[in-house]
Structures are given as structure tokens and as C-alpha cells.
């Protein structure tokens, strides 16, 4: 059994191939927030715990850089 990620950990949902930040566990599922966040139906999704793994260091670096770039474009430094 895999350990539950901590809030804010970058994870990969292998069922969808999406990467996001772990938000919480509820009703036996994980809630994940997209790296770029924002409003809309794709900002958060639920995933089966068995499909969620911590992101590799390279994937984490890329995702965090993408988030910083998006925030910079929106003027949210």
C-alpha cells in the first residue's frame, strides 16, 4: 500500500496522466488540484488512491516552473 501524500505534494494520476497538487482524501478518493489551478471544471478532480503516485523530481520541477510562469503572466508574483 502506498502512503497517502501530504497536502501540497505534487502527484501524478496514472489513470488520466495529469499532474497536480494533492488537496485531501475524502470518501476513499483523493482530491487533486491542477498545477495551474484557476476556475473551471478542470481545476480539480478526484482520483483513485491506487492511481496516484508522487511525481518524479523532474516532473515536479517542470510543474512548479509552469505554475510560476502562469502566475507571473497573471501578475501574481
Draw up the topology in text.
Elements: E1 10-13, E2 18-26, E3 29-34, E4 44-47, E5 52-54, H1 57-73
Antiparallel strand pairs: 1-2, 1-5, 2-3, 3-4
Notes on the protein architecture:
The structure is a single chain. The protein is α+β, with helices and mostly antiparallel strands. Helices cover 22% and strands 34% of the residues. The protein contains 1 helix and 5 strands. Strands 4-3-2-1-5 form a 5-stranded antiparallel sheet, covered by helices on one side. The radius of gyration is 12 Å and the shape is globular. It starts with 9 loop residues before the first strand and ends with a helix. The relative contact order is 0.22. The model has no long low-confidence stretch (mean pLDDT 84).
Amino acid at each position: 500500500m502506498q502512503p497517502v501524500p501530504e497536502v501540497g505534494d505534487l502527484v501524478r494520476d496514472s489513470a488520466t496522466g495529469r499532474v497536480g497538487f494533492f488537496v485531501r482524501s475524502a470518501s476513499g478518493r483523493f482530491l487533486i488540484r491542477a498545477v495551474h489551478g484557476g476556475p473551471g471544471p478542470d481545476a480539480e478532480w478526484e482520483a483513485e488512491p491506487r492511481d496516484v503516485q508522487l511525481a518524479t523530481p523532474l516532473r515536479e520541477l517542470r510543474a512548479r516552473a509552469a505554475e510560476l510562469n502562469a502566475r507571473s503572466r497573471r501578475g501574481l508574483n
